Amino acid sequence: MNYPNGIKKDNSISLSTLKNSKNRGMTLENDLNETNEYYRDIDKAIIYKKPTPIKIVKVDYPSRSETKIKEAYFTVPSTTDYNGIYKGFYIDYEAKETRSKTSFSLENIHPHQIKHLERIHNHKGIAFIIIRFTTLNETYLLKIEDFLSFINNNDRKSIPIDYFKEKGYLIKDGYRPRVDYLKVVDSILEVYECEK
C-alpha cells in the first residue's frame, strides 16, 4: 500500500511474528473472564472477577478524557480472584498458572487466600482453586478440602501434578465456554447432595 509522500507500508507478516502473537492474551484469567461472561449471557451463573482494592494517591488531569492515575497503592490484601452464585450456592475460587510440568508451588497462593477459601467452605459455600499447567496445556479444579488435606498432611512446598490428577478434576478446553468449570461444580454438587 502506498501512502502520501511516497511512503510504502510493508504488509508482509513473518512466520515468527505469527507464532509469537498466536497465544497472546490467552491466559487463564482471560479464559475464565470469557467463560464467566458466557455463563452470564446464557443466565447460567452470575460470577465475576473481584476488583483489586487500591487507594489512588496521585492523578494527572491533562483533560477530562485523558485522566491518568500516577500513583496508587493496594489498600488491603485481596482475597480470591472470583466469586458469585450458581444454583443457589455461593462460589469462590482462586485461579493460578504455572509453567512447571511437575508441580504447583505453594508460594503462588497466599495464606490469607487459603484461609478465606477455608472459611467459605466452612459456611457451606463452594470453594476451590483452578490451576493451569501452561506447558502441559492442562487445567485442573481442586476442591479446597483436598487442597487443605494436602497442605495439612505434607511438608512439601509444592503439590505434585499427580495429586491434581488423583484428587482434582481435569477441565477440558472448549470454545464457548472456554473453561467449562461449572461441569465440574455440577459433579461436586451431586456428591454434596448424596452426602445429605
Quantity of strands, as a count: 10
Main pleated-sheet profile: 6 strands, mixed
The helix content is: 25-40%
Main structural class: alpha+beta
Q: Provide the gyration radius in Å.
A: 21 Å
For the record, the CATH architecture stands as 3-Layer(aba) Sandwich
| Low-confidence regions | 1-5, 7-25
How are the strands of the largest sheet arranged?
1-4-5-7-8-10
CATH class value: Alpha Beta
Number of helices: 6
Which overall shape is indicated by the principal axes computed on the Cα atoms?
Answer: globular
Describe this entry's structure for a reader:
33% of the residues lie in helices and 29% in strands. The protein has a 6-stranded mixed β-sheet with strand order 1-4-5-7-8-10. β2 (54-60) and β3 (68-74) form a beta hairpin. It is globular. It has helices at residues 15-22, 28-41, 111-122, 144-153, 161-167, 182-195, and strands at 46-49, 54-60, 68-74, 82-86, 89-98, 103-105, 126-133, 138-143, 158-160, 169-171. It has one domain (26-51, 77-195): Trna Endonuclease, Chain: A, domain 1 (3-Layer(aba) Sandwich). With 196 residues, it is of the alpha+beta class.
